[in-house]
Amino acid sequence: MSRTVLVTGGNRGIGKAIAEEFIAAGYKVAVTVRSGEGPAGALSVKADVTDPASLDSAFAEIEEKLGPVEILVANAGITRDTLLMRMTDEEFEEVIDTNLNGTFRVLKRATKSMIKGKYGRVILIGSVVALLGSPGQVNYSASKSALVGMARSLTRELGGRGITANVVAPGFIDTDMTAELSEEMQADYKKRIPAGRFAAPAEVAKVVRWLASDEASYISGAVIPVDGGMGMGH
């Protein structure tokens, strides 16, 4: 059976790679975008995770065209990096509202149909910095570490209804964001990674797709690192 997948923020970077991985595996895939389009083969719906009304509209369109969402990949996120003493309330709150509150909004809407269908896979895209920490990312790391508690609480609430919830925690990934770093900074970051390189987005996508499969049906409340060993022990 071809299940319906929703990937938030699925028009670039890791989100796009995740959507492409599910499409290649034969799933029905929808992606939320604020602008632009998702990959070929995906249903692109305009939505902003900070706007509940836009999410309601997006879910209605997905349910009409593809059916109820059975697999949710909460990937949409932003950064507003700066040191704590320079960080404004707005820079902190904006990241929390998108990365954490936005995930809550999407999750609450998606789990309604999962409960009815007694099946669901929730995969929250976290980050290695959630537990490792990173200077200049007090807001971002706080928003990502909170996803661990969210997934584990959801597991305790809905684990008996055929629903799993896990966090995938990527490290440094080859995306537009890392490409903007200077060669010196890239080399410095790679020194901290035992694997000695950044990951390809597809390496994250394959782990996400596996977690959504029946092979991972007994895994819930876990944090799966995809970071080349950077955050081990945290």
In short:
This protein has about 230 residues and is of the alpha/beta class. The chain has eight helices and seven strands.
What is this structure's SSE topology?
Blueprint: E1 4-8, H1 13-24, E2 28-33, E3 43-46, H2 52-65, E4 71-74, H3 89-117, E5 120-125, H4 129-132, H5 138-158, E6 163-170, H6 176-179, H7 183-191, H8 201-211, E7 223-226
Parallel strand pairs: 1-2, 1-4, 2-3, 4-5, 5-6, 6-7
Detailed description of the structure:
This protein has a seven-stranded parallel β-sheet, with helices on both faces. Helix content is 44%, strand content 16%. Helix 1 (13-24) links the parallel strand 1 and strand 2 (28-33). With 234 residues, the protein is α/β, with parallel strands linked by helices. Helix 2 packs parallel to helix 3 (89-117) and helix 3 (89-117) packs parallel to helix 5 (138-158).
Provide tags for this entry:
single chain, 234 residues, alpha/beta, Rossmann fold, 16% strand
Mean of pLDDT: 95
Helix content, binned percent: 40-55%
Q: Which value, in Å, is the CA radius of gyration?
A: 17 Å
CATH structural fold name:
Rossmann fold
Count of strand segments: 7
Q: Could you spell the SSE succession in H and E letters?
A: EHEEHEHEHHEHHHE
The total count of helices amounts to 8
Give the biggest beta sheet.
7 strands, parallel
What class, by secondary structure content?
alpha/beta
Strand ordering within the main sheet: 3-2-1-4-5-6-7
Number of domains: 1
CATH architecture: 3-Layer(aba) Sandwich
- Write down the overall geometry: globular
